[in-house]
Amino acid sequence: MRDLTRRRFLQFSGVTAAAVLAAGGTAVGVDRLLSAPPSGDSVLVLVTLYGGNDGLNTLIPAQDRAYQDGRPELAYAPEQVLALGEGLGLNPGLRRLHGLWEQQRLTVVRGVGYPRPDHSHFRSMAIWQTASPDTSVRTGWLGRWLDHAHTEHGADPLRAVSLEPTLPPFLAGERTAGATIRPEGLALPQKSLAEAYRGLGVADGGDSPLQARAAESVTELFTVAQAVNGALTPGTPNTLAAQLGAVAALVRAGAPPRVYSASLGGFDTHADERGTQERLLGELDAALGGFVDALAGVSRRVVTVVYSEFGRRVRANAGQGTDHGTAAPVFVLGERVRSGFLGEQPSLEDLDDGDLKYTVDFRDVYASVLEDVLGADVEPVLGTWKGRAGFETTTP
Fold first, then answer.
1. Confidence band, pLDDT 50/70/90 cuts, at residue 396
2. Which residue has the higher pLDDT, 375 or 230?
3. Residues 6+ apart with CB under 8 A from 302
4. Which of 78, 86, 223, 262 is in the most buried spot, having the most CB atoms within 10 Å?
5. Is the residue at 196 inside a domain?
């Protein structure tokens, strides 16, 4: 009866999702990460801002008359922004990032986008996460990197780790995927149900490979909870600061992942944008600032990239918000990156049906990350793509 119950559970809970589990998309405990051989390799941290962050009120051309005219009540005055030069300044909520700029530890890649932009959150994020603007593909860009690493070095689910509630699609490959850790702990069934759920993870020789891997993931869930929950405060919100705090602790301990993923949502600011976005950018700023502080002594190993699926339109709407747009800045943080501006600032007067024209293809950023941070071959991930952003990292 146990076997029948477990099989039904796997089937009716969507056993097809076991394909991702079979590829390595699983939860891992902090104890397993910290027991692995120490790593001195460079580390990439990707921070995704979900919702379409308004790039023009993040990297602000406050002295541009077209900016002021297009946003009479939403625009920042020149004296309100944190000046960077070339007529641009950061949102006042980004004081720690401004400090990193002054310390020459911040690169701002301007006007990042892709051809024939899509205003749908879902399609645009899919494009960014798969690195495929022209066709739909099943794998994420770093999932393809994981697949290639799997071929060269064997399976290793600890090569890439997400601190988000779910695994982001860009970490899912055809044969392997990243792992997940939830910094707020794991909620498991009450004691009366716990043993029944444990039984679902008991190995059985009659299982198919996918069913066996899905069953194994149930056992791993309890292992992770035992390893992680005792070190974390139950119910702690999965904030960006908590995610990056866990990343910093793992990097300092020499944990083996080469890639970490974290995220912050809420940037779909169609109304009353200014206060909402400034608060969110302040949360981003505080989390990144705390992350940099926590990396003291090992920060040369880490390069952090912050991006969103698209920017917003130049003109404010009637609700004092902004609608879905196109090009926006990408931030690259670290001691090893060449500080300053990369790419041209899009013109606010030469628009494409009200949208900014991109000046840097996001795949240029990805190619530079693959080569300069991960030391990887670009071709298995991006094909014959030749562009590079050129932020020129140095060795750790």
1. confident
2. 375
3. 42, 43, 45, 251, 295, 334
4. 262
5. no
